[in-house]
Automatic annotation (TrEMBL):
Name of protein: Receptor-mediated endocytosis protein 6 homolog
Similarity comment: Belongs to the GAPVD1 family.
Function: Acts both as a GTPase-activating protein (GAP) and a guanine nucleotide exchange factor (GEF), and participates in endocytosis.
Main subcellular location: membrane
Organism from which the protein derives: Euroglyphus maynei
């Protein structure tokens, strides 16, 4: 075929439909933004653009698109510039004719997105209601179970009070008690999520009964140790600002200081009784810090960024009984931690150790 040849209607219709199909299969306008130097009305530039698309579709292994592009390239190579211009002109006319339909489609798409958002909101509400229902039913079941387990709980309390019971034994006693109670139930009737919730609620009730014995195994000695550290941190806090050289917080993060939401989370630490809940409290604190640091322009915070800010937050919040909290969690929950929980817990312990180093430095 050459520039003087007469292109029949079927051929024009074929190439016309293939180009339209290509437009429908790829985000043509998004791709073209990267290659604005090309004039797509020019045959050579259009062929170069098609070859670029072919290379990208081959890289992503999109066989159907690659085959279509190769066929269009084959046809366009045999066409003249005038014939190609006529096809583009026809496509432009069609596009204008369809503009009202395109607007209708866009509005319909927006309407569907709104409906999908509403459906998603309803689904989230249903999931919350389902979780709340599970919590209420299982909490009621736990109260019934614990009434029958009172003699065993009293025996557990007695062993915790016994000075000869070692720390590792205490952790094993708690886990064994939970396993025995759950083992007496028909667990096959529960889903995995319900079983996990059952264990958490049982753990809360059980740890609440032995909390002071487990949290302060050495009694007044532990409380006095925590009180001394609390007073020392209070004195340190009064003279510490976010730009202190002791902390070496990057200046780009000063705009997010003093990280009040993270401090608020740590202040709730003493309100929780189970090691699991205390870990969640610390997890939320660190998550707040990372989120706030991430709002800084052109910043992707790392562990090196988290630690100095976490030290500042621990000092300024000055939560009570930090040392006992660390020992409590390490005794009863350390082996249960994984992933981000374990990572944030390590960062928290490092922050406390750094603070102790500062306080022990005579300078």
């Amino acid at each position: 075929m050459n520039n003087d040849s007469i292109v029949d209607i079927d051929f024009l219709s074929d190439i016309h439909s293939k180009i339209y199909k290509l437009i429908s299969l790829i985000d043509l306008f998004h791709v073209y933004r990267r290659y604005r130097f090309l004039n797509l009305l020019n045959k050579n530039d259009f062929l170069m653009f098609l070859k670029i698309l072919l290379s990208e579709s081959n890289d992503t292994n999109e066989i159907s698109i690659s085959v279509l592009i190769m066929d269009i390239i084959r046809i366009v190579q045999d066409m003249g510039q005038e014939e190609l211009s006529n096809i583009f002109q026809q496509i432009e006319i069609d596009w204008k004719c369809r503009s009202f339909y395109i607007i209708y489609q866009l509005k319909s798409h927006q309407y569907l997105l709104q409906k999908l958002k509403q459906i998603d909101s309803v689904q989230q509400s249903l999931r919350k209601d389902h979780s709340l229902t599970d919590f209420i039913i299982i909490s009621f079941l736990v109260r019934l179970i614990l009434d029958k387990q009172e003699p065993n709980i009293q025996e557990l309390i007695r062993k915790f009070r016994d000075p000869s019971t070692l720390t590792d034994e205490k952790a094993s006693l708690v886990q064994r008690s939970l396993d025995i109670i759950i083992g007496q139930l028909k667990t096959q009737l529960f889903t995995d999520e319900q079983l996990a919730l059952l264990r958490q609620i049982l753990e809360r009730h059980l740890m609440n009964r032995i909390y002071l014995l487990a949290f302060y195994p050495n009694g007044d000695i532990d409380q006095l140790r925590d009180q001394i550290l609390h007073q020392q941190i209070s004195q340190l806090s009064s003279n510490l600002s976010h730009n202190s050289k002791l902390l070496n917080i990057p200046t780009k993060y000063f705009t997010t200081s003093p990280w009040p939401s993270a401090q608020a989370e740590l202040l709730l630490l003493s309100a929780y009784k189970t090691p699991r809940d205390k870990i969640q409290c610390i997890y939320r604190c660190c998550s707040h810090i990372m989120t706030l640091l991430g709002t800084t322009q052109n910043s992707i915070p790392s562990a090196d960024d988290l630690l100095p800010v976490l030290i500042f937050v621990v000092i300024k919040s000055n939560a009570r009984s930090i040392l006992s909290t660390i020992e409590y969690v390490n005794t009863f929950y350390l082996n249960e931690m994984a992933g981000e929980q374990s990572y944030y817990w390590t960062q928290f312990c490092s922050a406390v150790e750094f603070i102790k180093t500062i306080l022990n430095d005579p300078q």
